[in-house]
Amino acid sequence: MKKIIQTEKAPAPIGPYNQAILHSGMLYTSGQIAINPVTNELVLDSIEVETTQVMKNLSAVLEAAGMDFSHVIKSSIFISDMENFGKINEVYSTYFDEATAPARETVEVANLPKYVNVEISMIASKS
C-alpha cells in the first residue's frame, strides 16, 4: 500500500502529484526545484544557492518519511545547462559520503518547470 508523504517544510505540489510516495519501504520523491517553502518564491541568486535550496527541499521530504540522505539509493539531476554541472556537483556532494553515495544520472534538458536551472528527484530506502 502506498503512503503519501507531505511536509510544509518543502514546496507544496502545484499539480496532480505528491511530494513523495512511500511504498514497500521505498521512497520516491517528486522532483524538487528551488522554491522557498516559506515564501513560495524561487531562489535563483546563483546556481550554488539554487542547488542548496533544492537539496534543503529534498532533505525536508526525506525527513518527513523518517529518512535522510544516507538512505538515498538513486538520484536524478536535470539541468538546463551542462556548463553548471561542476557547481551543482560541488553543492550536491556536500550532502553525501563519497564512499556510500547513491547511483545517479545527470541530464541536460531544454527547459525545466518555471525555467529553473536544476531539478532533482531521489529514490530512498530504509533497508
UniProtKB/TrEMBL annotation:
Q: Which GO terms describe its molecular function?
A: deaminase activity
Q: What is this protein called?
A: Reactive intermediate/imine deaminase
Q: Which PANTHER family match?
A: 2-IMINOBUTANOATE/2-IMINOPROPANOATE DEAMINASE RIDA, PROTEIN HMF1-RELATED
Residues that span the membrane, as ranges: none
The organism is Aurantibacter aestuarii
- CDD domains tied to this protein: YjgF_YER057c_UK114_family
Name the domain of life this protein comes from.
Bacteria
What family does the Swiss-Prot or TrEMBL record give for this protein? Answer: Belongs to the RutC family.
> GO CC terms on record?
cytosol
